[in-house]
Amino acid sequence: MKVRADVLRTYQTLHTWTGITTSLLLFIGFFAGALVMFAPEIDRWATSPEKHMPAIATERYDELLQKVLMEYPKAADSVTLHFDKSLSPVSWYEQGNGRGLALDEVKWHGTLNGDGELVTQLVPVNTLSAMLDMLHRTAGIIGEIDHHQAGVFVLGVAAFAYFIALVSGVIFLLPTLAKRFQALRQDGERKRFWLDGHNLLGIASLPFHIVIAITVTVFAYHDVFYGGLSQLYGDKPMFPAPQQQKIERQLTDLPKVSELVAHVEAHAPGYTVSYIRYANLTKPAASASVGVVNEEQLMRGALNDYVFINPYTFKIASSSAAHPDQNIWAKLVSAFFSLHFGSYGGELGRWAYFLMGLAGAGLFYSGNILWLEKRRRKGTQQQRSYQIMGALTVGVSLGALMGIAAVFASNKWLTLTSVNINHAYLFVYYASFFSVLGAAFVYGPARTAIHGLKLLALLCVIVPATSLLAAVIPATELWTPKSFEALMVEVISLLFGVFFWLLSKHVARRALQNEPGSIWYLKESKATSGISIRHTV
Description:
Elements: H1 5-20, H2 23-36, H3 39-46, H4 61-71, E1 78-82, E2 90-95, E3 106-112, E4 118-124, H5 128-138, E5 144-145, E6 148-149, H6 150-173, H7 177-180, H8 190-204, H9 206-233, H10 257-267, E7 272-279, E8 287-293, E9 305-309, E10 316-319, H11 328-341, H12 346-375, H13 384-414, H14 421-442, H15 445-472, H16 484-513
Antiparallel strand pairs: 1-2, 1-7, 2-3, 3-4, 5-6, 7-8, 8-9, 9-10
Helix pairs in contact: 1-6, 2-5, 2-6, 2-12, 2-13, 3-5, 3-16, 6-9, 8-12, 9-11, 12-13, 13-14, 13-15, 14-15, 15-16
């Protein structure tokens, strides 16, 4: 395809600067987002099995709910029945409400024993996956703007610029796309390898990246969009207000759980109920939010669709589940959310989004490296912008990885102390992040990368090593994985550890081969001693 040279240069410049100004924020968002694909498994891994109550038969949920409401009247305001056997059968908040990243929430867990007696325990909520989700949505940027996290707005701007980078990148690649799409040239200059790898990652996953860029922008600024629409609607509400109920509610009139489940499944054929969250059961505005799952459908939430129903009359207020009466607008909204969350396709879909999230992080990192390789001058004197961007690239990306790995490595050990584990998570993450970022500026990118990657590998290996220690010495009060999903968290951590260790060796060899002036150059020292020089890209 023939495109004028001046047009190509314009789009290449646009691609370069929109990419370089957003890449580090997006690196954090994509890596954390990849991990969030397995948020339930991470929370189960991070919490001692003793904190989960034994499952019960489905037909015992009515008995369980009635006993909870009788012995704990506060639960009538909000109580959740879980049908997932890996979770406690019932839970409700003593402090907090489960929305966003709250560090001091406390939740009751309950079940029935063999004699039909209610057994409960009060458990502080572990927010490990919520912290990862916060990093995914804000890139770790602290602060609030009008009761919203500032990082959400910043990442929204980054996502819009990222969309521009995608479009401009495709345009200036068009003339050589067919020829070089699957080429990874390892001969000649090193920047050719980074260029080919960057282009391959970007083009191969282009639809995924376009979806993420658009959805993140809308998620960040949906309130602004609604505010603009309100100017058109004037005093007329955009959404119909719910009708005020004046009927007094009595718990003795509450229908059976099995009846509510039957009505929901009749409304949404093919779905199974994962949880029922009752609210305001003793008030006129009583409601039930029901999570329903059908992996063959595009689901509105990250894990399920929603059906909002009156628990007394079974009148459905609204539903995101696919059903015959669902209008086209509801289907479009469900598809919009589902394509961002990856809540379709079952386990295969989740693993695909996990891998594409990691590949996306690699895409942004490789873009920065390519920028640095192209702007490196011959000799030892480099522009200040080159030195700063080199330190930022290593410091931010490695710092984010180090912070996340340190949180996972310290998780079980923190439970042995009296500290609030959720506060400790944030301290460990930000202390690790800023330590690595500072080291990149003080000691240089090459030295920081070599030693940092080794420490990162060690932190990843500590995760399964801690469970091994728990198995060998039970008196430590640590615990081992009790499910395949929890075991996979540790297997993935071990694989990350091996990868980062090998990467540290690669960076050390590269440091010996590079010319003075490169951010990767390092005179032979303890960091590179014992490293054999071989051809490497």
